[in-house]
């Protein structure tokens, strides 16, 4: 994971709401959309991105009254840290299972072009 991608994700309003909204209680995309006022298409896009990064997991597939299958999601994020030191950026995710995802140090001087 690139530091800028990780930083953008942690400053994205919808992504943060989805992570926080699924930390203590598993929820469906529809639940999250209604709870936080996130458009459903945007909610599914953010969930897919968070799943790809390993920060959220589908823990169950439920059957609705209408006979549709819906996914129930749970946040895997325990802590997130962002730091800027001496022209370098680092983003670190600590997951609930003890795994640490570290973007490593990336020089901002070489990444940002003016």
What is the strand content?
25-35%
Unreliable spans: 107-114
Task: Please identify which CATH superfamily we are dealing with.
Answer: Winged helix-like DNA-binding domain superfamily/Winged helix DNA-binding domain
Q: Approximately how much helix is present in the residues?
A: 25-40%
State the CATH class: Mainly Alpha
Q: Work out the number of β strands.
A: 7
Task: Explain how this protein is built.
- Helix content is 37%, strand content 34%.
- It is elongated and about 55 Å long.
- Helix 2 crosses helix 4 (40-52) and helix 3 (29-36) packs across helix 4 (40-52).
- It has helices at 3-10, 13-21, 29-36, 40-52, 108-111; strands spanning 27-28, 56-63, 69-75, 77-85, 88-95, 100-102, 106-107.
- The chain has a single domain (3-111), classed as Arc Repressor Mutant, subunit A, CATH 1.10.10.10.
- With 114 residues, the protein is of the alpha+beta class.
- The strands form two sheets. Strands 4, 5, 6 and 7 form a four-stranded antiparallel beta sheet that branches. It has a three-stranded antiparallel beta sheet with strand order 1-3-2.
């Amino acid at each position: 994971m690139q530091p800028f991608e990780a930083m953008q994700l942690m400053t994205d309003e919808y992504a943060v709401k989805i992570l926080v909204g699924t930390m203590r209680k598993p929820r469906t995309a529809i639940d999250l959309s209604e709870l936080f006022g996130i458009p459903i298409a945007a909610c599914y896009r953010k969930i897919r991105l968070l799943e790809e990064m390993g920060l959220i997991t589908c823990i169950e597939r439920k059957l609705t009254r209408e006979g549709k299958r819906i996914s129930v999601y749970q946040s895997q994020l325990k802590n997130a840290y962002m730091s800027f030191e001496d022209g370098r950026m680092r983003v670190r995710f600590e997951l609930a299972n003890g795994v640490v995802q570290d973007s490593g140090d990336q020089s901002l001087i070489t990444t940002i072009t003016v």
